[in-house]
Specification:
The complex is a heterodimer.
Chain A lengths: L2 E5 L2 E5 L4 E8 L3 E9 L6 E7 L4 E4 L2 E6 L4 E6 L8 E9 L3 E4 L3 E6 L1
Parallel strand pairs in A: 2-11
Antiparallel strand pairs in A: 1-3, 3-8, 4-5, 4-9, 6-7, 7-8, 9-10, 9-11
Chain B lengths: L3 E4 L2 E4 L5 E7 L5 E7 L6 E6 L6 E2 L6 E5 L5 E5 L8 E8 L10 E2 L3 E5 L1
Classes of the chains: A mainly beta, B mainly beta.
Amino acid sequence: KNQVEQSPQSLIILEGKNCTLQCNYTVSPFSNLRWYKQDTGRGPVSLTIMTFSENTKSNGRYTATLDADTKQSSLHITASQLSDSASYICVVSAAPDKLIFGTGTRLQVFP
Amino acid sequence: NAGVTQTPKFQVLKTGQSMTLQCAQDMNHNSMYWYRQDPGMGLRLIYYSASEGTTDKGEVPNGYNVSRLNKREFSLRLESAAPSQTSVYFCASSEGQRTGWYGYTFGSGTRLTVV
């Protein structure tokens, strides 16, 4: 069964600290993996997209890693800001035509 | 601003009522999608349209119908609303095929409550 599991479900950190969110997947055949940021009351916004051949991709203070052998991905946020408070969703594409969404990690950044 | 526009933002329906959720994109994208988001669950695909004139069922199509009016507009209709359809609905668009390299652009959502 194709599944995407994210951990932790929720996370609280202080402004300026770093954090790492995890995504484990059992999806076959794998096509690509995406991370989205969803602010409260808004739609998801794309952060990164990676294929199996990419190990790391950055978007500003966001860095995603992918280990296709262990079927794990992580999203690292550096020097967190209050505006990073959001849900972060891992999405895995299964060829030819299926997207599997994780349930997300809710991040709260406090001053 | 370029993007995906959804209307309305909020709606309360009584069981059995019907309504249409509207979605329009101005990015000249070929593909459009309707998702629902429920607490504790990932987004689930209701219907999608790979190109103007075509529509296909997703994971949870029961109780819904769609219309791809033109390249810009993709509407979702609830013919007889049920409490189980209480959810947040998102419209999205992408330049290419569903699982290809192209990212999705999402609208800001419609929060629907069926009482």
